[in-house]
Amino acid sequence: GVLAGLAVAVTGLRIRERREARDSPLPMLHTARSALRNRPFLLLVVALSLIRIAFTATSAALPFFVIHHLGQSEEAAGLLIGVLLVSVVVGVPVWRRLSARYNKHQAYAGGLGVTVLGLLLVMAVPEGGLIPAVALVALIGFGNAAHWLLPWSMIPDAVDASDTADSLGLYFGVYGVAEKVSRSLSLVAVSAALGLFGYTAGVEPGGIARLGIRLMVGPIPAVFVAGAIPFVLRYPVSRET
Questions:
Q1: For residue 226, what are the contacts with CB-CB under 8 A and spacing of at least 6?
Q2: Which of 70, 117, 124, 153 is deepest in the core (most CB within 10 A)?
Q3: Neighbours of 187 (CB within 10 A)
Q4: What is the model's pTM?
Q5: Distance (Å, rounded) from C-alpha 187 to C-alpha 194?
Q6: Are residues 207 and 10 in contact, defined by beta-carbon separation less than 8 angstroms?
Q7: 160 class by beta-carbon count within 10 Å (0-12 exposed, 13-18 middle, 19+ buried)
Q8: Chain centre to alpha carbon of residue 199
């Protein structure tokens, strides 16, 4: 907590805005209505909310998967997260180059497609198969790099397409609320779903509960990521427009 707070404090204290660049702020309600009428932005919010639900579910169910399917200690989840982060770093310049060659939304959809493939293949990981799991997490992270990179420049593009180009902060605020709601709903849904599959804390799960854990890590999140792809492809702001 202290390190995170220092990171935020250093960033905030070091950034200075040019006073001459500040315009009079638009009324908040006017800006909010404009954001809700902005079709490119709404498409992104829907897509990003679906993706947040998926990634939160995978993260929440991963420790159960590591313990009960891979037969590893919970610390092994840290290894998988580390592999994920390294593969994201490797993937970022690739998706950056593809977004420069094509359009951002097309590259983004491509990365989501790779992520869907990786999530679906979770069901093919055998019990105790730590090495296949590591390889699969690397594939998911590579696709996920597009999500870490591209939306943060697509939201400003959507704002530039509107009549309130000086209200970027409110747009990111609307997205932030949508993300928090999606994350919270996903955490509740994972707990409820594991209960429906018969998982009980402190009790070795049976076959149905193990199946539920695998589904919550891979295929079910894959459905949400796949559902986001049509919204991303319909994003109308391109290099030409």
A1: 112, 116
A2: 70
A3: 15
A4: 0.83
A5: 11
A6: no
A7: exposed
A8: 26
